[in-house]
Amino acid sequence: MTADNQVRIGLAKSDDALLDLTDAGVESITSILENADPKQRLTDLNEQGMPEVAKDDVTLLSPIEVQEVWAAGVTYLRSKDARMEESDFSATAYDRVYDAPRPEIFFKSLPEKVVACGEPVGIRADAKWNVPEPELVLMMNSRGNIAGYAVGNDMSSRDIEGENLLYLPQAKVYHRSCAIGPWITVGASEEEARQWEISLKIQRGGEVMFEGNVSVNQIKRSFSELADYMNRSQAFPFGSALLTGTGIVPGDDFTLEEGDHIAIHISGIGCLLNSVVRV
């Protein structure tokens, strides 16, 4: 968004500059994702001499426009183990879904409720154990094809989820519980994306409270498998976004507090930055 509050679509030219694609008639990210070859479309636009804008002169909005956001769970071994530690009641269910043919997939957020890079994510006021979940996001078009990737944060209230699996929607879906950004990377194959590294850093008062990292290659299920199940018996006329699960889980002695700062970085994409508020 520009300084005069105009929403425009930009193409990252470098770490410091964007190309304004307005003159080329690009009015939405969705139109790029719906293209038969998004990478080639952007390559062509890059060669048309679009106006350049300094990144510091704009505010990055969430790249989610009209896409529903869903999430896959228990796709990393570490996540399975952590979920089993939350509750003896839930342990068997999590153990089974990790090895089951059908993945866990659940609704996460309406598009208008997704938090952008630089905006605060929320922790529930009625929860005592809140954590971020850094995740790779698959951006799919209306045909169910993976058209790009983004960085995601699937905020979670682990004490609520651990109390009873039927409380999952309350633990996962609430105000400011989903952040996606800072933009979308297109053109990478699954083989390339699996070489990326996901890292998480949480700071409080300038002090690092937690750090962790994991390779995207640790996701047990293939991207095509997740996309297939996501689109079964579904219709997404504007495409969809799927968070692919987390392999970075802070210990049970850590919980987020209001004022914390979360940085999630995925090599090959960029860094999603959010502060924390209680909601």
Shape by Cα distribution: globular
Which band does the percent of strand residues land in?
25-35%
Fraction of residues in helices? 10-25%
CATH class of the largest domain: Alpha Beta
Number of domains: 2
Within CATH, the superfamily of the largest domain carries the name Fumarylacetoacetase-like, C-terminal domain
Number of helices, counting only DSSP H or I runs of 4 residues or more: 8
Q: Please report the total strand number as a whole number.
A: 16
Elements, N to C (H/E)? EEHHEEHHEEEEEEHHEHEEHEEE
- What oligomerization state is this entry in? single chain
Q: Note the main sheet.
A: 6 strands, mixed
What name is given to the CATH topology of the largest domain? Fumarylacetoacetate hydrolase, domain 2
Examine the secondary-structure arrangement and name the CATH architecture of the largest domain. Alpha-Beta Complex
User: What structural category arises from helix and sheet content?
Assistant: alpha+beta
Termini distance?
26 Å
Order of strands, widest sheet: 5-4-14-8-9-11
Residue stretches low in confidence (pLDDT < 50, at least 5 long) are none
How much is the average pLDDT?
94
Structural commentary:
The chain is α+β, with helices and mostly antiparallel strands. It has two domains: 10-57, no CATH class; 68-278, Fumarylacetoacetase-like, C-terminal domain (Fumarylacetoacetate hydrolase, domain 2, Alpha-Beta Complex). Helix content is 22%, strand content 32%. The two termini are 26 Å apart.
